[in-house]
Amino acid sequence: MPQFVFKVSGMSCAACSAHVEKAASSAPGVKTAAVNLLQNTLRVETDDAFNAQRLKDAVEQAGYTLIILPEQPVPAGKEKPSSSSESEERALRLRLRYSLLFLFPLFYIAMGHMFSLPLPAVLTQNPGVFALTQGLLLVPILFINRVIFISGFKSLLRGVPNMNSLIAVGAGAAAASGLWTLYRVLILMQDAPNWAPAFEALHGLYFESAGMILTLITLGKYLETRAKRKTSGAIEQLLQLAPPKALRVEQDVEREIDSADIQPGDILAVRAGMAVAADGIILSGRGALDESALTGESLPVDKEAGALVRAGTINRAGYFRFQVTHAGKQTLLSQIIRLVEEASSSKAPIGRLADKVSGVFVPVVIGLSVVTAAGWLLAGYGWGWAIGCAVAVLVISCPCALGLATPTAVMVGTGTGARNGILFKSAEVLETARLADTVVFDKTGTLTQGKPEVTDFLLADGMAERDFWNYAVWAESPSEHPLSRAVLRAQQAQGIAPQLAQEFETLPGAGICARVNGKQIIAGNERLMRRCRVVIVSSFAQQAQAWAKQGKTVLFFAFDGQLAGILALADSLNPSARESVCQLRQMGLNVVLLTGDNESAARFIGRQLGITTIIAGVFPQDKEAQIRRLQKSGKVIMVGDGINDAPALARADVGVAVGSGTDIALETSDVVLVKNDLTGVAAAVRLSRAVISNIKQNLFWAFIYNVCGIPLAAGVFYHWLGWKLNPMFAAACMSLSSVFVVTNALRLRYFKPYKIKKGKEDTPLMVQVLTVEGMMCAHCAGRVQGALQAVAGVKKVQVNLTAKEVTVEGENLSPQALLGAVEQAGYQVKNIR
Length: 833
Hints:
Layout: E1 3-9, H1 14-25, E2 30-36, E3 41-46, H2 52-61, E4 65-69, H3 84-111, H4 121-125, H5 127-144, H6 146-157, H7 163-188, H8 196-201, H9 207-231, H10 233-241, E5 245-250, E6 253-258, E7 267-270, E8 279-290, H11 292-295, E9 301-303, E10 308-309, E11 314-326, H12 332-345, H13 352-378, H14 383-396, H15 399-419, E12 422-424, H16 427-432, E13 436-442, H17 443-447, E14 453-459, H18 465-476, H19 482-490, E15 503-507, E16 511-516, E17 519-524, H20 526-531, H21 538-549, E18 553-559, E19 562-570, H22 577-586, E20 590-594, H23 599-609, E21 613-615, H24 620-630, E22 635-640, H25 646-651, E23 654-658, H26 663-668, E24 671-673, H27 679-714, H28 718-721, H29 727-746, E25 766-773, H30 778-789, E26 794-800, E27 805-810, H31 815-824, E28 828-832
Parallel strand pairs: 13-20, 13-22, 20-21, 22-23, 23-24
Antiparallel strand pairs: 1-3, 1-4, 2-3, 5-6, 5-7, 7-11, 8-9, 8-10, 8-11, 12-24, 14-19, 15-16, 16-17, 17-18, 18-19, 25-27, 25-28, 26-27
Helix pairs in contact: 1-13, 3-5, 3-9, 5-7, 5-9, 6-7, 7-9, 7-14, 9-29, 10-12, 12-15, 13-14, 13-15, 14-27, 14-29, 15-27, 15-29, 21-23, 22-27, 27-29
């Protein structure tokens, strides 16, 4: 569904966001509406009936102003517009300065006598002058902060009260009470020379409370705005990475152009110290690229001809020219910015309770304020006391803290992830990742490098080597599969003349079929050969089995229905695979290897990495079914990189695509690891746990603050404990509560997702595989398992009776101790690896 982003002005709290979302959802053609209170934006999903003007009318009818924004990030080369949060911060700073200018003398006059501070005699001896002076000092403060009254009373009259409504009513009531007291004092002064009643009436003067409330609220909003601006720092830093200018090479002459004018196919030059303006492939030269902003990698990466470069990276040393493949909104940098913005504007399910409460919060508080005033009046207390308690209830209530609890943590968390090369596509994914108990890895291209090489081959009798390789290369040429590319690389130096296949078909999970020069060629796994009724002689079957046990992938070739030869291909492990599996196991997660490769090759990889749960020989269409089966026992994270993994990535609770993966894998995944570092999977889970913990802290504070603060302000504890909250202190508490929530969320900026604490309990587990002879039944397997579990350091024992193998996991395992335990149980160990 089409998405549009609009700017909304006038929102001040969670109640405002609830009103805007409700109004937007009622507009024709709007399917979903989500407000980002931090960025003051509204994101809507629409259908064909959507009309922007009707949406604008609906939002403005609710009392807010809507302006359309571009959906995508600012293109490279365009000047970034001034941030609205910065202009808001400047306006609040000015309001605060001028408010303080009049508040200080007002407070000095009102409270100075309590601290024995010197005051002019005309103020201390004349109650009318004393009250009138305070009133005159309050008027500028009311005018400076008039936006609170305009917004608050406008929303109140429309029936959609917000935080400003609470403050406007509270401060307005205090000012009105002070004005009434001023008239009382002037009337009582007519009984001169006895001014004692007039001095007594001054206790109901709340001018200083009204001024202090407005000033403290402005101070709180200023601090909150400053903190909120820091939460969006990740996006602003990413926007600043794209350079405004670039050097385009035209007829071997370098000419400076705007980055916005770059087109795919252009040749750009990058000198030392310059930032790369687009994605592309280096044609000549070399450089040391600082990719830390995109991947979190601190050290520069050497790049030379043929290497990929990304927009936003910085050339620390060297000079090179590259051809642009992606520019503007199509670069990885722009996609990262878009993902971070979308994730920041989405809502985590944990925040739904706060949203529901925020929708009714302000009307409930106003009702409680009225009840408080009425209760004290009925109890026999005066108007001054009743109004003071009612005003305190109004100003201590803080819907801002509720509204900011979730989005601040989500924005800072997604920004922290982006700086470390971990991109969450939504807040819901950020919440779900922490609940996972199983992580499923694809093998080829994920746990391995994804670039297999031919290591061995065996040809059928009478098959000429030159003919075999000719037809093998011609048949595999149209395929982009990693195994096909490996076959082509194996004979790249032989100079085989290109030959176009007359027919070609890819068989997912099996192989390919092709016809070249009238010869039918089938290439693939053993299952494909048997399905096509190709006879595999015993010598070839034995050799294939031997290669498979060495962890190699076996590729069979048949020409015109007859087996022509077999190839063995080996793929090296991803350097981060072993550490990633180790970290996930330390975190208590079950790790599963899911692959379409044969079981022997899969188990070989599993043994190297310490993965004991292997699901091998799975067709691409069946990977999704395996994920669905695993989901019956908990939440599943699927990690993959290819087209074959797309259904499984989409089915999993959290799909993780490595950065080197295909576009379709990146599109169907929920989390993207920009760099091909699998430890990012554990880092993503840790970051998810940290963000949700931070949200829970914020929500707890927001709820508990209001639960405790409102009764305290209402004077509930006065008769038992003598506690009564002054409206000025209530305003200070209200301001600090939202500042606390935002500041707590900012702590996530310092979270290090790749940093894992090391301790005794985090010692990596060793894996030993024993080949045991003599095991005949389940009873034998049980005896061997029991004997090994008694060995010091053993954590887990898994017996495969069919393969006669026992996998032992533990700390500081001694092969001699394992050997002795098995032999003592009456069995023989043939091999330990």
